[in-house]
Structures are given as structure tokens and as C-alpha cells.
Design a protein that fits this description.
By secondary structure, the protein is an alpha/beta fold. The chain folds into 3 domains: 96 residues, 3-Layer(aba) Sandwich (D-Maltodextrin-Binding Protein, domain 2); 88 residues, D-Maltodextrin-Binding Protein, domain 2 (3-Layer(aba) Sandwich), CATH 3.40.190; 67 residues, 2-Layer Sandwich (Alpha-Beta Plaits). It is built from 8 helices and 15 strands. The strands form 3 sheets. The protein has a 6-stranded mixed beta sheet. It is flat and about 75 Å long. The protein binds adenosine-5'-triphosphate, 1-O-pyrophosphono-5-O-phosphono-alpha-D-ribofuranose and magnesium ion. Adenosine-5'-triphosphate binds next to helix 3.
Length: 285
């Protein structure tokens, strides 16, 4: 039987969350970080542990069928490779930063300037779109040091918390793109392996939906139920069960996890009691 070949980052910022999401979709992998290849025990899947930066080429060549990869790397090196699912982790931006003391009004300010970056294709495309000419210095790491050592006037690099910029006396002035980990697919995938990928993607969607949602249970007097239903955002047809206590009911529903804290006080002041909020492992639609 054919197996889907999937690349995940060998080590680095994507590795742990990539392995966790595979585990959360019920795939158990015979691991060993030192192995470069491992098989799943209960799903037709082989995992290849690779450098994030090398993965686009493996996808292009069809050496692997799919990959969990930073979207920013796909934009930089993955011409023609499609991303089929956003995975919600390793969120970051690819941004322009300059020394704190300098001023910046628009991208035009980069005309004739020296820009240090590990993302030359992304930067060149951005400059071209904006009809700006600049000189690129391509460096593979510690890009934030470049302005301090006189190598560049500006940088384009990954920004997440902003602390690396801060520590190096830089400020973010423009955002080229927003990125997160994605599931990418090789243009050379066979139809047999595409079927396996579809099954994997179906499971991923249900886990991702679950991660976005919470299961809420609460008790309330019957006369307050209508008001409570109106308060809970995005609720469609909650389950209502009578409690042993006369005139009281229990209400169950799924809500978006980001919305819950905004309405909790309102729920309480409208008579909700014993509010329980539980995580959801899977939401299969
Ligand atoms: N500070 C950060 N916060 C959030 N996500 C990040 C951050 N830095 C990088 N990422 C994301 O994680 C991906 C992997 O970053 P990491 O630094 O682990 O590897 P790398 O050095 O770019 O790649 P390689 O695996 O080729 O060595 C990046 O492409 C980006 O999508
Ligand atoms: O905004 P922040 O939260 O400070 O994150 C941004 C930093 O994180 C990444 O580096 P990383 O730590 O992955 O080191 P690397 O350059 O060795 O990959 C990126 O290249 C930035 O330097
Ligand atoms: Mg990094």
C-alpha cells in the first residue's frame, strides 16, 4: 500500500507544534529525532525530517508529497507550490526594520538604500511592485545585527514578539507579509497519495476547528434562557436539558474561544450559574 510522504522541520521553531498536530489527529509516529525518516504506526504516512528552507525544493521535485512549512518560506522559495491549510501556529511577520533613530514615511524611503535580508525573492518582488531600487545584502542569520555593524541601512526579517528588533535598536516600519505554519502540497503528488492527503486534511480541519472552539455548559432559571441565548455569540441551536431542580435548565453550546471571556460577566448578570468551559479535541462537520 502507498504511503503519503510528508516533510516536517527536523528541529527549530516548527518542529514541536508540527509533531503535536500529527499526534492530535491520531497519528502515532515511531520517533527518534535522530532518524531522518519515520513511519506512522496507524496511518499510511512516512515523515521526513528536513530543514524548513530545503522543503520547497523537495516539494517541487516530488521527493515528498506534502509538508508542514512556514508560509514565508513557501512565498520565498515555493514558486508554484500551493498551501492547502493554514495550521495556526508559528505566526510571524516578514517586516522592514530600520534603526530607531531614523525616520520612515513609506517604502520609497528605501530608494538607493542597502537592505540586509534572508528573503531576497520576497524583498525584490516587494521593491519591484513599489518601483523602488535598493541594494540587497543576502545573509542567512542574525540579520538584525546588520545595521549596527554598518552593513545595511534597513533589514527585512521575521518579526514575532519584536524583542530581537528592540534588543538591536531597530523598529518595524513596514510589513511585507504575515505568515504561519501551513500544509503545502507537491504538484507531483500521485492520485493515490492525494487520497491519503485528503484524509489527513479532513482530520486536521476537525482538530483546528476544535482548537478554535470551547464547549460551554451552564445552568440557568428557565425564564432567563432566552436572554442567555441572545448573549452567547455565534450560538446556533444550543442544547437545553431540564435539571432535577424545578424551573432550571442546563444549556450546552459551542462557542469561539476568543469570544467567551467577553460575555462571561453578562452571562452571570443574566442568571447563568455553574458555568463550565471545556476544550474540544475534534469538531467533525
Ligand atoms: N520568532 C518567531 N516566531 C514565530 N515563528 C517564527 C519565528 N521565527 C521563525 N518562525 C517561523 O518558523 C519557521 C522556522 O524557523 P526556524 O528559525 O526554526 O528555522 P529556519 O532557521 O528558518 O529554517 P531551517 O529549518 O531551514 O533551519 C520560519 O520559517 C517562520 O515561518
Ligand atoms: O520578534 P522576535 O520574537 O524576537 O522573533 C524574531 C526572531 O526570531 C527568528 O530568529 P530565531 O530565534 O529563529 O533564530 P535564527 O535566526 O537562528 O533562526 C527571526 O529570525 C528573528 O531574529
Ligand atoms: Mg529562525
Amino acid at each position: 500500500m502507498s504511503k503519503l510522504k510528508i516533510a516536517v522541520q527536523k528541529s527549530g521553531r516548527l518542529h514541536d507544534d508540527s509533531m503535536r498536530i500529527l499526534k492530535d489527529v491520531g497519528i502515532s509516529i515511531d520517533n527518534g529525532k535522530d532518524q531522518l525518516k519515520a513511519s506512522a504506526k496507524n496511518f499510511p504516512l512516512e515523515v521526513f525530517y528536513l530543514r524548513n528552507g530545503d522543503i520547497p525544493q523537495y516539494l517541487k521535485d516530488g521527493v515528498v508529497d506534502a509538508a508542514i512549512i512556514g508560509e514565508n518560506v513557501l512565498v520565498e522559495k515555493g514558486n508554484g507550490i500551493s498551501s492547502i491549510e493554514k495550521l495556526g501556529f508559528s505566526t510571524c511577520k516578514v517586516s522592514v526594520a530600520i534603526p530607531k533613530s531614523k525616520t520612515y514615511t513609506s517604502i520609497q524611503d528605501l530608494e538607493g538604500k542597502r537592505i540586509a535580508t534572508s528573503y531576497p525573492n520576497t524583498v525584490n518582488q516587494f521593491l519591484k511592485q513599489n518601483k523602488v531600487n535598493a541594494n540587497l545584502h543576502i545573509i542567512n542569520g542574525s540579520v538584525e545585527i546588520a545595521p549596527n555593524i554598518g552593513l545595511a541601512d534597513a533589514i527585512v526579517d521575521i518579526v514575532s514578539s519584536g524583542s530581537t528588533l528592540f534588543k538591536n535598536g531597530l523598529k518595524e516600519v513596514d510589513v511585507l507579509l504575515k505568515s504561519e505554519a501551513v500544509l503545502a502540497v507537491s504538484p507531483k503528488i500521485s492520485s493515490e497519495n492525494q487520497n491519503i492527503l485528503d484524509k489527513l486534511q479532513f482530520r486536521l480541519k476537525s482538530v483546528l476547528r476544535g482548537r478554535q472552539s470551547k464547549y460551554v455548559l451552564l445552568n440557568a432559571p428557565d425564564e432567563k434562557l432566552e436572554a442567555i441565548i441572545n448573549i452567547l455569540p455565534g450560538m446556533n441551536s444550543p442544547t437545553i436539558l431540564p435539571l432535577a431542580k424545578e424551573g432550571w435548565s442546563s444549556l450546552h453550546s459551542v462557542i469561539n474561544k476568543n469570544e467567551f471571556w467577553e460575555v462571561i460577566d453578562e452571562l452571570k448578570s443574566n442568571g447563568a450559574e455553574g458555568i463550565l468551559v471545556c476544550p474540544i479535541e475534534n469538531m467533525v462537520l
